[in-house]
UniProtKB/TrEMBL annotation:
<keyword id="KW-0012">Acyltransferase</keyword>
<keyword id="KW-0808">Transferase</keyword>
<dbReference type="InterPro" id="IPR050832">
    <property type="entry name" value="Bact_Acetyltransf"/>
</dbReference>
<dbReference type="Pfam" id="PF00583">
    <property type="entry name" value="Acetyltransf_1"/>
</dbReference>
<dbReference type="InterPro" id="IPR016181">
    <property type="entry name" value="Acyl_CoA_acyltransferase"/>
</dbReference>
<dbReference type="InterPro" id="IPR000182">
    <property type="entry name" value="GNAT_dom"/>
</dbReference>
<feature type="domain" description="N-acetyltransferase">
    <location>
        <begin position="3"/>
        <end position="169"/>
    </location>
</feature>
<protein>
    <submittedName>
        <fullName>N-acetyltransferase</fullName>
    </submittedName>
</protein>
């Protein structure tokens, strides 16, 4: 199956928010504290889109995933308790969510492959991300996809596990 990726538009907001609402409910059902404090919300996604950071993954014409991508723009990462693998430019991804009707199809792997291609297209060989200590699904994905644990970063007063993958070029 071929998937396409494109920048999100404000017209996509309803579909994106539906996917994120489902992901928020899944985190809660899994016993995770991640995304249980009113974040993310439609305003955060609208801001991603307005700044050109929001991306959607499509199957045919249907949005089946969302992420926000930023280049070397995550102030919380400067204060890591630990050490990043590199100090070079990096792509950071946030708010990865896959449509709940499409779970179990390996779509997160396709999303991360797109993120790697995005980084390479921009001449960047480092990808950084973080997740809650209790988001077992994302922790498994990081391990499976070759991300290395680097330490902890803090968002809204909470510690998050920080990971980096250096892309071989």
């Amino acid at each position: 199956m071929e998937y396409t990726f494109r920048k999100a538009t404000i017209a996509d907001l309803g579909q994106i928010w539906s996917i994120l609402e489902d992901a928020i409910a899944r985190r809660k059902a899994d016993g995770s504290e991640q995304w249980q404090d009113g974040y993310p919300n439609p305003s955060v996604i609208a801001n991603d889109i307005a700044l050109g950071h929001g991306f959607v993954m499509l199957e045919d014409d249907t949005i089946i995933g969302y992420t926000a991508l930023l280049i070397s723009n995550e102030p919380a990462y400067a204060a890591i308790e630990g050490k990043w693998l590199t100090d070079d430019e990096f792509v950071v991804f946030h708010r990865v969510a896959i449509d709940g009707k499409n779970l179990g199809r390996g779509l997160a792997k396709h999303m991360l492959a797109f993120i790697e291609q995005y980084a390479l297209k921009h001449g960047i060989y480092s990808i950084k991300a973080d997740t809650n200590f209790d988001n077992q699904a994302m922790l498994r994905i990081f391990e499976r996809e070759g991300y290395q644990y680097c330490g902890e970063v803090y968002f809204r007063g909470s510690a998050r596990q920080a990971f980096e993958k250096v892309i071989v070029h």
